[in-house]
Amino acid sequence: MADEKLPTRAEDFSEWYNQLVLRAQLADYAPVRGCMIVRPYGWALWENIQGALDRRFKATGHQNVAFPLLIPKSFIEKEKHHVEGFSPELAVVTIGGGEELAEPLVLRPTSETIIGHMWSKWIQSYRDLPVLMNQWNSVIRWELRTKLFLRTLEFYWQEGHTAHATHEEAVAETRQMLDVYTDFAVNEAAIPVIPGVKSDAEKFAGADTTYAIEAMMGDGKALQAGTSHYLGQNFAQAFEVKYLDQNGTLQHCWTTSWGLSTRFIGAIIMVHGDDQGLVLPPRLAPIEAVIVPIYKNDDEKASVMKAAKELKVQLVKADLRVHLDEREGFSPGWKFNDWEMRGVPVRVELGPKDVARHAAMLARRDRPGKEGKVSASLADLPATVTKLLAEIQQALHDKALAFRRANTQEASTYNDLKKAVEGGFAFSPWCDSGECEAKIKEETRATMRCIPLDRAAVLGKEVASGGACVYCGKPATNWAIFGRAY
Ligand SMILES: [Zn+2]
After folding, report:
1. What is the full DSSP assignment across 343-355?
2. Interatomic CA distance for residues 122 and 247, integer angstroms
3. Ligand 1 centre from 290 Cα, in Å?
4. Tell me, what's the pLDDT at 85?
5. CA separation (Å) from 249 to 89, 181, 231?
6. How many Å apart are CA 298 and CA 1, to the nearest integer?
C-alpha cells in the first residue's frame, strides 16, 4: 500500500485523487460500473460526519424517519420541473417476482414525491405543523461520468424534509439548515465554505430557491458540498398537501428539503490532502492518534509494547480515538508512510530511548518532517495530544481559507474572469441573466457557483457593489462566484 508514491497533485490532480481513495482504503470500485464500495475506514469517516450532522439536526428539532427505496413512477411525474430534472437519471424497475409490474417503480433519486404523498394523509390542520423530518439513506441517479465519492450511481446521504404553515417559516428553515451545514463544514471538517444562492440554471429541479455551500478544492475547482432548497408550494400543490389554518381556511403547505452526501468525503480529500496522501481534520478522523512502536530486538519489544499499551489506555481514557499499530513484519518507516497515506492527524512514535526517559515523539500529519515533531512526556501525553489536535484542526481551516482567498480574484472584466477560473474562482459583477451565465459556461467551462450571502467573507474584505455585468456590461444586480466545478 505505502510502497509506491502517489502522483503529485501538481502532476495529475485527478489521478492523485483516484489513487489516494484506493490506497487510503476509503473506497473501491464495485462490479457494476459507476457504483462504489465504501470500505471500513471510509465508512468510519462517514459515521463521524453523520454523527456531527445528526446532533445538529436533532438540536434544531428534526426527527429521523425511513421511507422506501421504491417509488411509483407516476409520483415523479407529478411535479413538472422535478420530472424534467430527474428523468434522464432514473433507474426504473419494470419486473418484480418474474412478472411485469402494472405500474413501473423508480429507485428513489430523492424522496420529495413519496414524502409529499404521505404528508397529504398526515397533515390536516395547522396543529400538525411544522413537520420536521430527516432520513439517512442511499439514492440512485444514473450518472454517466463517475468518480469515487464525487459522482456515483448510488450514493449515501441524508435528506431533510419539512412542511410549514407559512412562506416565512419555510424560508427561515431553509436558511437555518444552510447555517447548520456551514457550521458543520467550518467547525468539524475545517473547510471554509461559501454559503450562497444558486442561479435558476443551477437550482434543484422543483425548487423556488436553492442555497448551497461551495468549497474550493486543492486544484482551484469548486465543489458544491451541501444544498438547502426552498420548495415554495410546488410539491404541496402537486401532492395536495393542505392544512386548515386558524380561520378554518384550507391552505397549501410550504416545504423545504436539504441534503449532504458522501460527496463531502471527496471535499475533505481534495481540500486537505497533500502529496503524501490524505490529511484528515481531527474532529472527523476515525483515528485521531496512532501509536507506532519502534524496537529492534525482543528485549526492546517487551518494554516498548508494555509502555505502548499503557499509553493507549491513557489516551482512550482522555476520550481520544487511538490505534496501536501492532502489525508484525513492517518497519516503523513503512508504518509511518502508511498512516500518512491514511491521514491520521497525530503519530506517536515510541522507541526504547523514549520509554527510558518516559517520553514519546509526536508527529503532526499536517506538517510533515522535523518541523511538525515535538517530544512530550508520557505523563502529560493525553493533554498534549488533545491540545495538538485542536491546533491541527485550526491550522487546516486557516490554510484552506488562505488558499481559497489567494485563488479567488475580484474580476470586473471578462478577461480577468477567464484568467481567474484557470486556477480558482472569479468573484464578478453579474446582471442575473441566464444568457450571460450560459455564455460564460460555454466559453470558459466555469459555472455560476453562488451569490455569496456574506460578500465581505469571500476575500476577507469589503468588495465593491454594483458595477457592470462581467459579460454583457449591463448594470450588475449581484456579485457572483464563477468557477469550474466537480
Ligand atoms: Zn450580463
Report:
1. T-SEEEEE-HHHH
2. 20
3. 53
4. 85
5. 39, 36, 22
6. 27
Ligand 1 centre to CA of 119 (Å) is 41
Length of the chain counted residue by residue:
486
pLDDT at 1 (0 to 100)? 47
The side-by-side arrangement of strands in the sheet containing 99-107 is 70-72, 99-107, 92-96
- In the chain, which stretches have pLDDT less than 50? 1-2
| Residue 167 burial (CB count, 10 A) | 13
Instruction: Decide: 23 and 6 in contact? Cβ < 8 Å.
Output: yes
Which amino acid is present at 201? A
Gap between the Cα atoms of 476 and 427, Å rounded: 12
Q: Residue type at 118? A: M
One-letter identity of residue 142? W
Q: Are 24 and 270 a contacting pair, CB within 8 Å?
A: no
Angle at 409 between CA 404 and CA 411, to 5 degrees: 150
144 SS3 class: coil
Q: Can you tell me the distance from the alpha carbon of 387 to that of 318, in angstroms, rounded to the nearest whole number?
A: 12
Å from CA of 414 to ligand 1 middle:
11
Which residues lie near ion ligand 1 (Cβ < 5 Å)?
431, 433, 436, 469, 471-472
pLDDT in tens, 86-115: 888 999 999 999 999 999 999 999 999 999
Cβ pair 480, 430 in contact under 8 A: yes
Give 203 Cα–ligand 1 centroid separation in angstroms: 19
Task: Find the helix packing angle between 414-423 and 434-444, rounded to 10°.
Answer: 50
- What type of residue is 330? F
Do the beta carbons of residue 484 and residue 446 sit within 8 Å?
A: yes
